[in-house]
Design brief:
It contains 8 helices and no strands. Helix 1 packs antiparallel against helix 5, helix 5 runs antiparallel to helix 8 and helix 7 runs antiparallel to helix 8.
Length: 220
Amino acid sequence: EGTSPLTRGRNGAPLMLEFVYWVGMAAVAVNALTGVMEAERKAIDVMGATLVAVATALGGGTVRDVLLNRNIFWIADQTYLITAVVCGLAAFFLLRHREIPARWFLIPDAVGLALFTAIGTEAALQWHTPWLAASLLGVITGVFGGVLRDVLCNEVPLVMRAGELYASAAWLGALLLIGLQEAGVERVWAGGVAMATILLLRLAAIRYHLTLPSFPVKPE
């Protein structure tokens, strides 16, 4: 019973578990890429960049699993860890020979936010977590890897900066996923709609500078 639902999503398991498993793997790969992209801006060496990639890819899900008191997903199934390391190394050697504009970093980060928030929310629901807590665990899964990435790279975490919608987009998507499931929508479709919503909200926020109210900047 302690086995992660993510690892039971293969070899003939129900479609939803298959969906969660492979979306989770994609999220790990994408977040590993964002970790290396941030490390590249700081001229970090290959070992440091790989550690940043692994922390970014696995951090949010680790916190979620600790809070849910269940097996940590990448320990239960080391394929996630291998994916993070391999993608981190591949991204490092690719970025050494090809310069990518800094703003392009925001696109894979938005994809990772959407993927991890949806699977984090779904994983919490599978663990019979109440809906509000499940939505917040989805947000934690989506944003905490990025927090670790930015802290390790000596940056103010993206989620804490005054700017475009970020955690709020993730939370709206998590609540939408839960609401669609309560309305009887198939879990796979609900997850797909939630991920698309988070991604589109985040990209629209970047493009049109959509923000939430914030405290005014006070003069020194």
